Amino acid sequence: MAEKNMWEIEQALWEKGTGVICGVDEAGRGPLAGPVYAAAVILPDNLEIPGLDDSKKLTDKRRRELMPIIKEKAIAYGIGVATEKEIDEINILQATFLAMQRALDQLAGKADFALIDGNREKDFGLPVMTVVKGDSRSANIAAASILAKVSRDDYMEQMAQKYPEYGFEIHKGYGTKAHYEALRTYGHCPLHRLTFLKKFYGNE
């Protein structure tokens, strides 16, 4: 099978005269606990990074091997966070956009155009295009997905030392059976998204 071209979307945009393109993706929209992370990345045009793909398709080991390569080779990158409190206050979609904006702000205006993973669009102060399954179709979005995912995983592993009873180092805050068991035993901690626990508490 021919190797897929992770630069096809960018190449089509460049042919139309688009300038510097960045990719944007998030990690952690679904968990019951912890912040949502986003990353924005500008890779050199047509750079080939072997194994670069949607972070969800890669092992943790592979993501961690790729992360320093992406950081070293990127023209610019930013990693933004929206806290669990912000998620509760403004909802997960708006908090995701906030994390994305914070990541884009770190690029310091180096991008002319943003490719955003998914199908939800927002005014980020520059032209954008949403790309469904963009993390497996665009090199820049794939790179962003890896930075966001590894950064969030690292944070949740640090928080596991602060709140060891929840097993955050294993499930990273997602609603696994073990996580729900811990909630039943210990209740929630400051890291939990209370808006995500309404149904759980309603069923108790």
Features of the shown structure:
204 residues; alpha/beta; 5-stranded mixed β-sheet; 8 helices; 43% helix
* Rg, alpha carbons: 18 Å
Return the string of H and E elements.
Answer: HEEHEHHEEHHHH
Share of helix, binned: 40-55%
> Order of strands across the widest beta sheet?
3-2-1-4-5
Number of strands: 5
Per DSSP, the total helix count is 8
Describe this structure in words.
By secondary structure, the protein is of the alpha/beta class. 43% of the residues lie in helices and 15% in strands. The protein has eight helices and five strands. It has helices at residues 8-15, 60-73, 84-90, 92-105, 139-162, 168-171, 177-186, 198-203, and strands at 21-27, 36-42, 76-82, 113-117, 128-131. It has a five-stranded mixed β-sheet with strand order 3-2-1-4-5. Helix 2 crosses helix 5 (139-162). It starts with 7 loop residues before the first helix and ends with a helix. The mean pLDDT is 95.
Topology:
Layout: H1 8-15, E1 21-27, E2 36-42, H2 60-73, E3 76-82, H3 84-90, H4 92-105, E4 113-117, E5 128-131, H5 139-162, H6 168-171, H7 177-186, H8 198-203
Short description:
The protein is α/β, with parallel strands linked by helices and 204 residues long. The protein has eight helices and five strands, in the order αββαβααββαααα.
